[in-house]
Amino acid sequence: MNLVELKSPSKEIRQDHWGKILCYAATGVLLLLLLTMMYFVFSKGIRTFTVDGVKVWKFLTTSQWEPTSTTPKVGALALISTSFLTTILAAVIAAPIAIIIAIYVVVIDTKIGTKLIQPIVELLLGIPSVVYGFVGLTMLVPLIRRSFGGTGFGILAGMLILALMILPTITSLAIESLRGVDRSYWNFAYTLGGTTWQVITHVILKIAAPNLIIAVIYGIARAFGEALAVQMVIGNTIQMPINLLTPTATLTSKLTTDIGNTVAGTLANDALWSLALILLLMSLAFNLIAKRFAKRRVKS
Amino acid sequence: MITMKSEQLLRVEGINVKYNNREVLHNLSLTFPKHQITAIMGPSGCGKSTFLRCLNRSNDLLPEVEVHGKVWLGDQNIYQPRTNIYQLRARVGMVYQQPVPFPFTIFENVVFGLKMAGQTDAKLLAMRVESSLKAAAIWDEVKDRLQEPAQALSGGQQQRVCLASVLAMQPEVILLDEPTSALDPTSSASIEQTLIALKKDYTIIIVTHNLQQASRISDQIAFMLNGDLIETAPTKTFFLQPQQPQTQDYLAGKFG
Ligand SMILES: Nc1ncnc2c1ncn2[C@@H]1O[C@H](COP(=O)(O)OP(=O)(O)OP(=O)(O)O)[C@@H](O)[C@H]1O
Ligand SMILES: [Mg+2]
Fold first, then answer.
1. If you count residue pairs, one on A and one on B, with CB atoms under 8 Å apart, how many are there?
2. Is residue B226 very low, low, confident or very high in pLDDT (cuts 50, 70, 90)?
3. Contacts of A282 (CB under 8 A, 6+ apart)
């Protein structure tokens, strides 16, 4: 090796250098995108309060939505409640089923699980939400109308469609979580006299718990942000959700219904931006909660 | 003869094992005397771990495995269909090659099997934790940190915690698959001491690649080659008067 060669960096070091620059650039673009989006939604979303003079407190605790009447009112409580209610009920239905399917795939019958169930789950994952909405509209809504009376549109239809939509999401993440539990732990439990049921409850679910919670949170986040399918079955009238058959609206369904019908700069338009702001803050919150559990997983 | 028989806690009679229709153990028979240490030796891949797993039916957990033959534990053939394999595994404890404790606290690890067996008496659990950790020669090192994660311990300590989890079940037989292969000499020595001390209460079967270790702790040695049992003899005889040419070659260092 001679001194001349050592003066200039090697080819590998230069490649490394370029690789790094590319990484930084990509990260920069993503960060810029995120910040622009946040700025955009924030600056527009707070106009309702700063320019139009609506009280934040009023916005969050009343549920009349008449931005174009002579005494304009914008209260998002019904929308917020409906969003939370449909989402949580959807998760309550979907999460246990998803986890049971995941246990079946990973523990009970891996052959049928990986050859049949998993491909089905992946297929369902790829179906666009409008198709779910269409199924809800043509099958679920009439069914509910016939069984329980009313129009059929409403929270019940919304939450069932959402449950159906997030089932594959949660299932596929839950399968990954359970697979992540090292085989050696199963075997150790078996050699200590455990039954398959005990291995599932004492070892697999216990160790995978933080990841399963993350899976459910992602499902909830997806349900919370879903607009199209919900809009098709929920009824789109603004009312407090008093029972499961109330036709009502969610934050997202209200946004998709009205965004084309308002003029920028008016209260009607600003108030929709405020709804978008709530959605953005909620999705940040879901992310933070998921991060907390991810941290706990690393520790244990 | 009758007294002899009661000294034989565990007896293997013509065991055959196939993985995916490939036979890897050919008709092995072997008797393990009660309260003695038997070392199973042989080159890598000869079937030692497979053989060990036959003794608590943990081969049943693997896919595509077929076991034929009999294993007598006391007067019961553990391969008869009526055997309760969960009770069996509590009676024949096993520490895997490089065992990793559960990602729980030390205390939870040791009581794990007992809790699965339905034991909830807090006092009894605490007592069993102390006695098992003492028997596994790790009590003094961990007695002040029972509520800390077991995986924060060193490799040798983790191994002994796993041993304690097995001992807590009060098994009759303990199977160990190369318990010291990943340990430093000090930890190995303390495991060896532990096993010698445990021998008065347990029948121990250990797979090892280490001739010195076998000579230090075992009473009997079984030598395997390519799925066959070549020679079984008391430890001293095995080293001083090996009968089979393959054994002589092995002792001379001709296989791995
Ligand atoms: N789960 C399995 N599936 C298929 N074949 C296996 C399996 N486990 C072991 N075998 C095969 O059975 C034979 C015996 O393996 P075994 O693990 O019992 O050997 P060993 O003597 O314990 O080796 P080592 O000293 O390396 O641990 C080997 O040929 C191995 O490839
Ligand atoms: Mg082995």
1. 62
2. very high
3. A224
> B28, B51 in Cβ contact below 8 A?
yes
Nearest by Cα to A280 from A251, A239, A248, A256: A251
**What does the domain layout of chain A look like in residue ranges?**
3-45, 65-299
pLDDT tens by residue, B13-66? 999 999 999 999 999 999 999 999 999 999 999 999 999 999 999 888 888 899
ipTM of this predicted complex?
0.88
Cα B64 to Cα B244: distance, rounded to the nearest angstrom: 34
* Ligand 1 binding pocket includes B19 (Cβ within 6 Å): yes
DSSP character string of B88-146:
HHHHEEEE-SS----SSBHHHHHHHHHHHTT---HHHHHHHHHHHHHHTT-HHHHTT-T
Q: E strands along chain A, which residues? A: 65-66, 73-74
What is A198-219 written as a DSSP string? HIIIIIIHHHHHHHHHHHHHHH
Predicted model pTM: 0.85
CB of A189 closer than 8 Å to CB of A114: no
Nearest alpha carbon to residue B29 among B72, B81, B65: B72
Is a pLDDT exceeding 70 seen at residue B1? no
- Strands B22-33 and B8-19 turn out to be antiparallel
Strand order, beta sheet including B228-234? B92-95, B173-177, B203-207, B37-41, B220-225, B228-234
- Measure the CA–CA gap between B232 and B224, rounded to whole angstroms: 9
CB B96 near ligand 1, within 6 Å: no
Q: Which of B229, B176, B232, B227 is nearest to B17 (CA)?
A: B227
Spatial separation of the C-alpha atoms in residues B150 and A187, rounded to whole Å? 17
For residue B244, which amino acid is it?
Q
- CA–CA distance, A110 with B173 (Å, rounded to integer): 32
Q: Name the phi and psi angles at B49, rounded to 5.
A: -65, -40
Q: How close does chain A come to B96, measured CA to CA in Å?
A: 8
Q: How many CB atoms lie within 10 A of CB B118?
A: 6
Q: Taking each helix axis as running N to C, give the angle between helix A118-125 and helix A155-179, from 0 to 180 degrees, rounded to the nearest 10.
A: 130
H helix intervals, chain B: 2-6, 48-54, 85-91, 106-116, 122-135, 139-142, 155-167, 185-198, 211-217, 235-240, 245-251
Picking from B100, B104, B116, the nearest residue to A192 by CB comes out as: B116
CATH architecture of A65-299: Orthogonal Bundle (1.10)
Within an 8 Å CB–CB cutoff, is residue A188 touching chain B? yes
Q: Are A213 and A98 in contact (CB under 8 A)?
A: no
Q: How many CA atoms, within 13 angstroms, populate the side-chain half-sphere of residue A204?
A: 28
Q: B105: which strand partners?
A: B149
